[in-house]
Amino acid sequence: MRTRVVGAAIVRGGRVLAARRTRPPEAAGRWELPGGKVEPGERPEAALERELAEELGVEVDVVRWLDGVVPISGTHELAAALVRIGGDAEEPEPRDDTHDRLRWLGPDELDEVDWLEPDRPFLAEIARELRSAGPTLRAVFFDEDDAARVVRRLRQDGYDAHVERERLAGEDDDEDHPWAVLTDAPVVALELLVDDHDGWLDADDGAEHTGPAAGSPLDLPTQPRRIKRP
Known about the structure:
This protein is an alpha+beta fold and 230 residues long. The chain contains 4 helices and 12 strands, in the order ββββαββββαβαββαβ. A hairpin with a 3-residue loop joins strand 6 (70-72) and strand 7. Its cofactor is Mg(2+).
């Protein structure tokens, strides 16, 4: 019986996280879906949660398993799951000597890195998932703790959410720096949290705003633009 290895397609804002390995020598410099081996008696979901906490310092929620299992030599096999970051608003980063670099890749960027062979069969399904991602809304907060609280609540409710720090437009370098929360949550859910944490939605007249592609610079207003109430 082959030993099960699990990998995580961590998705956020229409992108997936790729990790560059440092070892063993034959894999160093190549990219993979982060994860690791399932220990005897351990559930695959639990193994994935454990490995990502150790390697990247993140809590994750398994959404579903991707199709297929890929043999690795004659002793191991790889299964991969679609996951989202949960818990607090931490940013993934290498925590041990397994990886030295991370990249968020959109569906048209997946071929920009040299993937390890066992991960390649999952890329087509990952690309389809990224392209089917819903519109991204954004809310802006002047307090980092407020932005983090909103992200935690959205993730607890099952939505994808993360924070990006963006400099307020203007000539004063000492101006406050707002924090933008990007999420696939519906506007009504985000609006309630905005009201509770003194932020504003980046939308006009209550219309849903899809916003720029994740990772692109945000052209923030110089003054809050709040949703107009009827």
